[in-house]
Amino acid sequence: MKRFVLALFAMLMMVAVYADNPIEITLGSKGFLKDYASANVEIDFSKTIYKEKELLMESLTEEEFERYTSKAIGAFAEAFNHNSKRLKIDNSEDARYAIDIEVDKIDYFFSVMSLVPGHKHTFFGTITVTNLDTAEIVCEMIVTRLKGGRDFSLEDSFYKCFAELGKELAKL
Question: What tens digit of pLDDT does each residue of 61-78 get?
């Protein structure tokens, strides 16, 4: 009986550890996610600190920077649209919402001693959602330590981090 109780307690502790949501709403509500509407997304990488050392723009060549950022936006939009039942990102002119993501920091490390060894990225930033019809801020969120990218390829790990952000935002 003791073993059963201890095993049940360990399982509940694991669920509590993995249930933590890294996205915290600081202003407004997540009601915009329930609208049958479209949204535009823009990700600002201009002040992004990468690998805890320097700006992302400075650590990559211009060609790499363009490729990383454009594919990150695509990965975010694809994952968001796949997981969202109503609001869709399509970057159209008649969109109702604008989702602006400011990337503050992206941590990176290579893990050998984990279940899935490889490159891993962690996202920190802020998300602001604006209603384009009224020009008012509908929701503001802070993202703290979103663990997303895990892959053997450094570049794919970067994209998977933004795909995880899209998935988590749609699941709010």
Answer: 899 999 999 999 999 999
